């Protein structure tokens, strides 16, 4: 038996990839452990979207030197986006590293394991237990080239998985107990497989027996077509929460980022989504090299207008090889200042969003006897207890922090 400790950094796609890599390890007799000192192998699935993310993965790898010295037979696999970016250079810097498996090679992970000669001959894979909510990857890579972003270079261009495979994966997970399916891709709503559009895929997944709710992340504003909007309006199983990254409130900066939309178009899209009952969360980058005080003020005013449920705010981090990395950086103190102003604003507005839910009715998927997640992604505490996995309809009587208190 081979005990594997898995450490995943980065986005949900990486979480899903870790599961997939574990399947190949399980076919070679591996079981998971959450105790590093008892593990025979470590799989680090890495992110490189910002310098900080990559740094965390590398410092974990650095700390493993001692772990490996304790037992040189132990195996270290460094996978994912940072592994793709840094490539072979890693083995020179960390000679105790056994396998580097870049994000582009996830389809060939099984062969990579075999080539290493470190594992038993593959047998039957054993999937990890499925929770109430399960990820299903529907596309890999990205065809955009946002000027700040490293993802297209480490993940490659888009490939959409065949709709049949996606439906089979979702059906297997639903059968194993998942009530909620989260469809994943970097521009998930750009999905197209022959005649199957993203909108029709959403409907088909929602028709799978046992599936009560469908979520997806991350969509791109440009692919919010009328067909998708109609589908969303007509299908109550599609969650009323959409994570739609905006990045900046200034049309000028959006152009320099090559996002392909204006502030106005973004606002138009989210208004249509909000009219369909959706809550919107977003990602924002502060301190893009060309961002002026006025551009930043436009981001603040967009946050005022948009009524986001949540906004994940990041300081711009230059990524080697991207077009924006050639530009002159803004001073760090400006980035710090803008980030803290933005975070304060986001917090205040999110509080108001929670207060506004008082009196509304929420559809909640129970994750604990008294607690669950609503279709709009709010955490909800119920008055009476319910079986885990049940859908409960209840009315909000109070909001405290990021929790809604409901009565059924
Ligand atoms: N595909 C998604 C985003 C994926 S990356 C989209 O296009 O919407 C996740 C988030 O990381 C982005 O939304 C962006 O806000 C942030 N990000 C990406 N590159 C960054 C960089 N160089 N510096 C800071 N934040 C960055
Ligand atoms: Fe990066 Fe832009 Fe692709 Fe999103 S759409 S992954 S931000 S290049
Ligand atoms: Fe990070 Fe790769 Fe996801 S760079 S955000 S783990 S696609």
SSE map:
Elements: E1 2-8, H1 12-26, E2 30-32, E3 41-46, H2 51-70, E4 75-80, H3 81-86, H4 89-93, E5 99-102, H5 109-116, E6 133-137, E7 139-140, H6 151-155, E8 159-160, H7 163-175, E9 180-184, E10 192-193, E11 196-197, H8 198-206, E12 213-217, H9 226-234, E13 241-243, H10 251-257, H11 263-275, E14 279-286, H12 293-306, E15 310-315, H13 332-356, E16 361-368, E17 371-374, E18 379-382, E19 391-400, E20 403-407
Parallel strand pairs: 1-2, 1-3, 3-4, 4-5, 6-9, 9-12, 13-14, 14-15, 18-20
Antiparallel strand pairs: 7-8, 10-11, 16-17, 16-19, 17-18, 19-20
Helix pairs in contact: 8-9, 12-13
Description of the structure:
The mean pLDDT is 96. The chain is globular, with a radius of gyration of 22 Å. Helix content is 37%, strand content 24%. It folds into four domains: 115 residues, Methylthiotransferase, N-terminal domain (Rossmann fold); 110 residues, Transcription Regulator spoIIAA (2-Layer Sandwich); 115 residues, Transcription Regulator spoIIAA, CATH 3.30.750; 47 residues. Helix 8 packs parallel to helix 9 and helix 12 runs parallel beside helix 13. The strands form six sheets. It has a five-stranded parallel β-sheet, with helices on both faces. A five-stranded mixed barrel has the order 16-17-18-20-19. The protein has a three-stranded parallel β-sheet with strand order 6-9-12, with helices on both faces. It is α/β, with parallel strands linked by helices and 408 residues long. Helix 12 links the parallel strand 14 and strand 15. FE3-S4 cluster binds next to helix 1 and helix 6.
């Amino acid at each position: 038996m081979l005990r594997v400790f898995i450490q995943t950094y980065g986005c949900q796609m990486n979480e899903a990839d870790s599961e997939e890599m574990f399947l190949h390890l399980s076919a070679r007799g591996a079981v998971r452990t959450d105790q590093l000192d008892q593990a025979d192998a470590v799989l680090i699935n890495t992110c490189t979207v910002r310098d900080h993310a990559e740094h965390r993965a590398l410092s974990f790898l650095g700390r493993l030197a001692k772990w490996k010295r304790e037992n040189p037979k132990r195996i270290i696999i460094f996978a994912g986006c940072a592994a793709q970016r840094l490539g072979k250079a890693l083995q020179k810097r960390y000679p105790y590293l056994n396998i580097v498996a870049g994000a582009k090679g996830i389809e060939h992970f099984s062969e990579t394991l075999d080539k290493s000669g470190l594992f038993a001959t593959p047998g039957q894979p054993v999937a990890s237990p499925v929770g109430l909510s399960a990820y299903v990857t529907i596309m890999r890579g990205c065809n955009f080239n946002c000027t700040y972003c490293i993802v297209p270079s480490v993940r490659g261009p888009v490939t959409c998985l065949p709709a049949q495979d996606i439906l089979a994966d979702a059906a297997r997970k639903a059968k194993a107990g998942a009530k909620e399916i989260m469809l994943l891709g970097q521009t998930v709503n750009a999905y197209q497989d022959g005649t199957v559009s993203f909108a029709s895929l959403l409907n088909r997944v929602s028709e799978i027996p046992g599936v009560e709710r469908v979520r997806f992340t991350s969509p791109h504003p440009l692919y919010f077509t009328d067909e998708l909007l109609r589908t969303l309006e007509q299908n109550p199983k599609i969650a009323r929460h959409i994570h739609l990254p905006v990045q900046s409130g200034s049309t000028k900066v959006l152009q320099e980022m090559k996002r392909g939309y204006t502030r106005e178009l973004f606002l138009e899209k989210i208004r249509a989504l909000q009219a369909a009952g959706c809550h919107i969360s977003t990602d924002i980058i502060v301190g893009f090299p060309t961002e002026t005080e006025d551009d930043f003020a436009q981001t603040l005013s967009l946050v005022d207008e948009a009524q986001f449920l949540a906004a994940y705010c990041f300081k711009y981090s230059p990524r080697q090889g991207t077009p924006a990395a050639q530009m002159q950086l803004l001073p760090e103190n400006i980035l710090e200042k803008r980030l803290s102003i933005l975070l304060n604003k986001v917090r205040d507005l999110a509080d108001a969003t929670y207060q506004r839910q008082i009196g509304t009715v929420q559809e909640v998927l129970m994750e604990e006897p008294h607690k669950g997640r609503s279709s709009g992604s709010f955490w909800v505490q119920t008055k009476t207890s319910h079986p885990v996995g049940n859908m409960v309809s209840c009315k909000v009587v109070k909001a405290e922090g990021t929790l809604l208190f409901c009565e059924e």
